[in-house]
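Predict the 3D structure for this chain.
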Amino acid sequence: MLPDFLKTKERLEIMLDLAFRQSHLSHLGPIACVPVSLYFEGNRTILIRADGSVEEMNPRQAKTELQVNTKEFEKMNEATVFNKIDSAAEEMAGQQAKSFYEEVGKAAEEVDNVVSADGQPFSMDIFFEGLEKIDIDFDEEGNPSNLMCPVNPKLFPSVKKVIEDAKSDPEIDKRFETLMERKKDEWRVRESNRKLVG
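Done. Predicted structure below.
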């Protein structure tokens, strides 16, 4: 009878799980910062929005497989194991990101919270129009909190150039500061209403 190293297997399982989770988070990109909620068993899932509206959700499944055949196993080392884990984590994160952006896009369309460039190249006017349509939270120092703008990798170079060029424009800077002050006032109102309700 061969020995069964239970404690070693348990430690290895914890280590591999941690490696998968860390790799998965790194591949999620900006959506890694999105708050998560646990789903408990039941026959339906609902989403309660900040405005009190309720929507029934149909969760999507994201899954991946990590397979190792016996011939491959004989030649595996630490690097090949972690490469396999990373590939599986990247596949799962890709499925989740695709689902996330589809759901956010659908929700934005439903409430007419979409900015369309109508085929025009990205500009600061389009950027400001997008900022106008979103709620922005602020940290204790009064700075925008978790404000990010995910960009399609194909569009990133042109978007980056427009943003870089705008940094040296005092009019754009003033426009941004004015918008942020107004957004900060809106945030204060939301926070005071939340505290009154709670």
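DSSP finds six helices and four strands in the chain.
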